[in-house]
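USER: Note each token:
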Amino acid sequence: MQLIIRHETIYRYSAPLTYTIQQLRLTPRAEQNQHAMSWQIRTAGQRHAYIDAYGNPSHTLTITGLHHEVSIIAEGVVELAMPYQGRITDQDTFSPLVFTVPTRLTEPVASILDFAGSHLPDQGKTTTGALLNLAVHIRGAVEYQTGATIVTTSASDALQLGRGVCQDHAHLFLACCHARGIPARYVSGYIDPESTNHAESHAWVDAWVDDADYSGWVSVDVTHACLMTDTYCRLAIGRDYDSAAPVRGVRRGGGQETMHVNVQVTQR
């Protein structure tokens, strides 16, 4: 499978900015099941490339001098292979226990502890089948509704609201896994919309399983209650949205901000 991806983000401001700094995670990860055949990022200003703490290819973007907008375009072609049963077998440089620590967005409050106890009966380990069952229940408890939440909405808030998007499904899944001592991490990336009838920009999770024939990471699309296939392109992993967001930053000046995002994903 080859996907042609174009991701455009434009920030516009009501008053001039004097300084912008953005952290970009807009380059596909180099993994066994995916390879960027071509990829480029186009912006104004200066970019510094680095690998972040979770092994994600990243850039720091800085723009100085007066400007009224920030335009970021990432595009290219990514070749993808089908992961067997959603398994991510790349070697990690750190322990999976790094991904058992709750965050502000995934704090396992009482309602989540109850939910996790009902749908993940075993403490400290799980199976692929149990993870898919959890995803089904999360999808039932939090109806998919665009615009129902924002990027700062926590897992517990989404569960209480009963509505959310893929990011909220992922956060609730992570919170449940952490409540049961199961390593789980957030994944940001893209998905071929023809395969799921879903928006091209997407979020899902990796969780650590102990199946009869395998112990390791399995990648689960909670929103669709299915395993990751060769129609998913992985940009970044992290503990939650905050540590895997494609674009995050701060500015000096600018007044009111409006953001326009356009993501296009097609099969080659």
User: Anything to note?
Assistant: The chain is about 20% helix and 45% strand. The chain has a mean pLDDT of 94. Residues 128-141 form the longest helix (14 residues). Residues 242 and 248 are 8 Å apart (CA to CA).
